[in-house]
UniProtKB/TrEMBL annotation:
The family this protein is said to belong to: Belongs to the PurU family.
Pfam families on file: Formyl_trans_N
E.C. number(s) listed in UniProt: 3.5.1.10
Catalytically driven reaction(s): (6R)-10-formyltetrahydrofolate + H2O = (6S)-5,6,7,8-tetrahydrofolate + formate + H(+)
Superkingdom classification of source: Bacteria
GO molecular function annotation: formyltetrahydrofolate deformylase activity
Residues of the Formyl transferase N-terminal domain: 87-263
Pathway noted in the entry: Purine metabolism; IMP biosynthesis via de novo pathway; formate from 10-formyl-5,6,7,8-tetrahydrofolate: step 1/1
Protein name: Formyltetrahydrofolate deformylase
Active site per database record: D226
UniProt function note: Catalyzes the hydrolysis of 10-formyltetrahydrofolate (formyl-FH4) to formate and tetrahydrofolate (FH4).
GO BP, sorted A to Z: 'de novo' IMP biosynthetic process; one-carbon metabolic process
PANTHER family in the record: FORMYLTETRAHYDROFOLATE DEFORMYLASE, FORMYLTETRAHYDROFOLATE DEFORMYLASE 2, MITOCHONDRIAL
Length: 282
């Protein structure tokens, strides 16, 4: 049976990188199925994503070890990934539109991930999760119990062997320690193009400002609130006839679209971090 793997890497730009990668894969009897690269001329940085197949058994650990000499020559940061679907925990509060969309795409087989549990600080969305056959874990949060709640979250990440945590309108701010523990493996969705309309009732704020576009931003979680590296943004044009309720409905559509794309691209190893930015291979 043919196996599919992905190599992602970044390093300083210099001649010979693509040749070295393709030669290595050829020597491993692997066939390149998809290749994308990006040269950031402003920082002299190079980024690469190569998907390849092999009809032979491939040991990821052995492949990683043998590629080490190539990586050392070019100063690469790299990662090999197999075809196993990443395991995802979804965190929610009371709004279910993003969770519902993720469940639909997961069950349809086009999310690129395996949902393994839903964690919430409220009980409201338990029926939605359990109807989909997903374990639902209620972790109440108060100012006094927040450290214990976050410790429980990190325990759940280990218990479910989760590769990614998705904050699907989870209305709690993670502590700096939790953000650092989940660096590069937690995605949040924010209503609007950051940093606009923070705080309560964002769509009322948008209505009061007479906006003509409603947007949503999916980004990695960092200690800087809602300012993590952006993965995807979605925008929907509206006009003066949209009241706050209708704006919210359109905004929820944008949130669901941006979040599902960000989750899929992350799980397909299409997103490479580049400081406060991302390189996203479509």
């Amino acid at each position: 049976m043919t196996q599919t793997f992905t190599l992602t890497l970044s390093c300083a730009q210099r001649p010979g990188i693509v040749h070295a990668v393709s030669s290595f894969l050829f020597e491993q009897n692997c066939d390149i199925a998809e290749h994308q690269q990006f040269d950031d001329t402003r920082s002299d940085a190079f980024f690469l994503r190569t998907s390849f197949v092999s009809a032979e058994d491939v040991d990821i650990e052995r492949l990683t070890a043998e590629f080490g000499s190539v990586a050392a020559k070019f100063g690469m940061t790299f990662n090999f990934n197999g075809s196993d679907l990443p395991r995802v925990i979804v965190m929610v509060s009371k709004m279910g539109h993003c969770l519902n969309d993720l469940i639909f795409r997961w069950r349809a087989g086009n999310l690129g991930a395996e949902l393994v549990a839903v964690v919430s600080n409220h009980e409201v969305l338990r029926p939605m999760a359990e109807a989909a056959g997903l374990p639902f874990v209620h972790v109440p949060v108060t100012p006094a119990t927040k450290p214990q709640a976050e410790a429980r979250l990190l325990e759940l990440v280990d218990e479910f062997d989760a590769d990614l945590v998705v904050l699907a309108r989870y209305m709690q701010v993670l502590s700096d320690d939790a953000c650092r523990a989940l660096r590069g493996r937690a995605i949040n969705i924010h209503h609007s193009f950051l940093p606009g309309f923070k705080g309560a009732k964002p769509y009322h704020q948008a209505f009061d400002r007479g906006v003509k576009q409603v947007g949503a931003t999916a980004h990695y979680v960092t200690p800087d609130l809602d300012e993590g590296p952006i993965i995807e943004q979605e925008v929907i044009r509206i006009d003066h006839s949209f009241d706050p309720a209708r704006l919210a409905t359109v905004g929820q559509d944008a949130e669901a679209l941006a979040l599902s794309r960000a989750v899929r691209w992350h799980c397909e190893n299409r997103v490479l971090l580049h400081g406060h930015r991302t390189v996203v291979f479509s």
